[in-house]
Structure formats: structure tokens, C-alpha cells
DsbA family protein (Streptomyces telluris), 214 residues
Amino acid sequence: MYVTAVEKTPADFWFDPLCPWAWMTSRWMLEVEKVRPVEVRWHVMSLAVLNEDKLDTMDERMRTIMRTEAWGPVRVCIAAAAKHGEQVLGPLYTALGTRFHNQGLPRDHETIVAALEEAGLPAELADVARSDAFDAELRASHEEGITKVGQDVGTPIIAVPGADGEQIAFFGPVVTPAPKGEAAARLWDGTLLVASTPGFYEIKRTRTQGPVFD
């Protein structure tokens, strides 16, 4: 008797390492991989690209972040994927996100270099943060994700195969702390259930708690 491995469902996940809420969702997805036959495939989207035409509507703090901090990490991520393959995005995202969110380190050259080294990538990739050399690739990756859900959402975006073979895409879920074990599995099952319902668009309530990094 031969036992075959369960075929895993690909879950395409678009992230910007700057976003703490996307970070929470990404840690949940790593839990989902442990409890459901799911394989996450990481892709880059950009809050800087998403908001470049909305800067005048933002407060000064957010406008400064979008202009001075948001471009660098995503540029480094997209350059790493272009040069070394998309399989490096998961480890690099973990290394960056842990530093940015769990450790509260500055989003600067030194922090990015340390994350690259942890992910086994060349430190000189950090120089891309100040360059537009890979901006075309960044915009293409961003557009691939955002086209699936529309312009009125942010990061993360998740896309999975539907019953008819077409991808079902959705923003979120936004959750804190990241569920673990069976709680992660239940949230995944429920998210797929509502996302695959024809005509379903939104569930939302006011956030009463910030991201809990554990």
C-alpha cells in the first residue's frame, strides 16, 4: 500500500514588512501551515506605492513614513527575490519583521543589513533601499496583488484557489494576537468560508487593541 502526501493548497500572500497588522497575519499563516495542508507563497506589495497619490490626505507623521521609510524595505525584498528567487522572501520577511515589530528596531540600513545576513543573503542588497533600480518589479508585484481585491484595501492580501480553479482573494484578516494551533485552523476555515461566498465583501469592527507581538 502506498501513502501519498496530501496536496497542499497554495496561499499567495502579499506583504509590506512595514505594516504591523500584516505581520500579525503572516505569523498566523505560519501557524496555519502547521495545522492545514497549506503552503504560503510570499509576494511583495508596497504601502508607498498604494499611497503615493494620497499623501495630501495623510497627517504629517504618516506622510513622512511613506516618503522616508516605506520605500526601502520593499525595494530590498523585491531585489532579493529578483536576484535569489522568491523562496528567500519568507525568511527575509521573518528577519525584517521580527526586528521592526517584535524588537522595535529602527527601519534603517543597519537593521536591514542584519536581517539580510540572518536570511543568508548578501548585505549589499541593503543598498537597493536607496535606489529605484527594482521599482518596476516592485510595482508589478504590487499590482498583481492589488488587482485581485481592488484599490480600497491595504496589506496583507491573500489569494487561494477557488472551487472553480479561479483565485479567491481577500484583504486580511486583521487579528491580534496571532492565533495558534486549532484556533489558527478555525480562523482559516472560517475565512475561506466567507471569502468563497459569492457576493461577500466585508466584515469589520472597530479595533480596540493594538498588535500584540509574541
